[in-house]
Amino acid sequence: MKMYFCPILLVALALFSCTPKDTEPKAVTDPTDLTVTLKSDDSVELTWKHPGQGVDGWWVFQRKESESVSVEPVNRTKALPSDSRSYIFENLTLGETYCFGVKAKGKSLLSKVVYSEPIQVPPMESWPAGDGGPVSLTANVSAKTAEFKAKSAEGEDVLITLAPVSNNKTVQIDRYEIGSEQFRSYTDWIGPYSMKTVAPTTQTENLNGFVGGWHASNGDGTGSPTAQTQSIEISLDGKPFPSGTASCNEASVVVHNKVEALNTKLGESKRFVIDEDVTYTFKDSRLYVRVDITALEDVNIAVYYGMQIAGGFCSRFSFTTETGETFSTSGDFTCSGKVRDMVGYSEGGHSVTAHMFGEGLGTFSNATPSYSAFTQYYGAGNGKGYYMLIGVAGGGSNSLTLRKGESVYWSGYYEFR
Fold first, then answer.
1. Biggest alpha carbon distance in the chain?
2. Distance of alpha carbon 212 from its chain centroid, rounded?
3. Rounded CA gap, 376 and 350, in Å?
4. Rounded to whole angstroms, how far apart are CA atoms 181 and 211?
5. What string of DSSP letters covers 293-306?
6. Euclidean distance between CA atoms 374 and 247, whole angstroms
7. DSSP bridge partners of 46
8. Which of 250, 261, 319, 394 is the most interior residue, by most CB within 10 Å?
9. In this predicted model, what pLDDT tens digit does every residue of 292-325 receive, in sequence order?
10. What's this model's pTM, rounded to 2 decimal places?
């Protein structure tokens, strides 16, 4: 009688070889090198290191120093992805001291919760980031939007947004907040132009008013666009920043515009005649502004205000000249001398200072000698302030002709208090 053992042995070997192996580690190792970085006035970022073996997610924890344990993770509804190595904790209390923790999550195993050293969230003005403290910037280059968030010199919250506004859809100051007061712009802060090309055009109608800024083809806020934002560039502390939210000492947004003339805004004559680059830089509680204007063909600028205080903010104004003279008004007013500070005051007690540096068009050499700044009221408590950089309000003498390729500029800053 023959007996066959080989097939049985092979089957046994096969069954043995197919038995699942326990590939998951006996334990998930703990995260290491926890670091906490202040990101804004009420947020921090926690980062950690881990080789990733056996991890399919992360739980993060927040507790006050006075609390012994964290009952639940902050992200209890959904673990962070396995490749995460950072998390931003928001809405923290100024002056409070926190510990931040993280735990690795495996398929069936967990690491221990590892906590950072205690860290206090100080008021923003105490951060070592320049006289005015840091600024938080939220930006989206493709949408052409940017939001500056910082503190005033007195420690109040300041928020300024740049966005495509008016019929022109050019990027301008859209919204601003100081303390408890909030405002929405309905007119320009960076002035429009009353200008025509030197060479005649076929356009003969609607040749008055302004172009650029908030002003469309009808001369006011209506009609077809007379300007266009070609692109914006954003940088944090001198480094390009395409989009997202981050904090820094200095945030800049450069807006590249093209603007038509009064006699090139309609029909077959429609074309751009100047390049306008507006650079907004927020640092040390101030929004610095520089405008560079370059002629694409010969143009004559009859009236240009440049820097303005807008938005229906002001119930009264004060002016200070470079010789120290001061003036105040709550109505229409023209201010003689070379004004360096124009301040608009809200009914709520806050103010916006528009400071003009004494360079470029800020020397006032292309403006009327009668005044360098003025106010105009459009209703009770609805005043707007203007610098006078080229010409005279209403047109007349002191216009400026720019030849093709020639440039002029001005610079200053806004301070919200």
1. 129
2. 21
3. 19
4. 31
5. EEESS-EEEEEE--
6. 37
7. 36, 87
8. 261
9. 999 999 999 999 999 998 865 677 888 888 888 8
10. 0.68
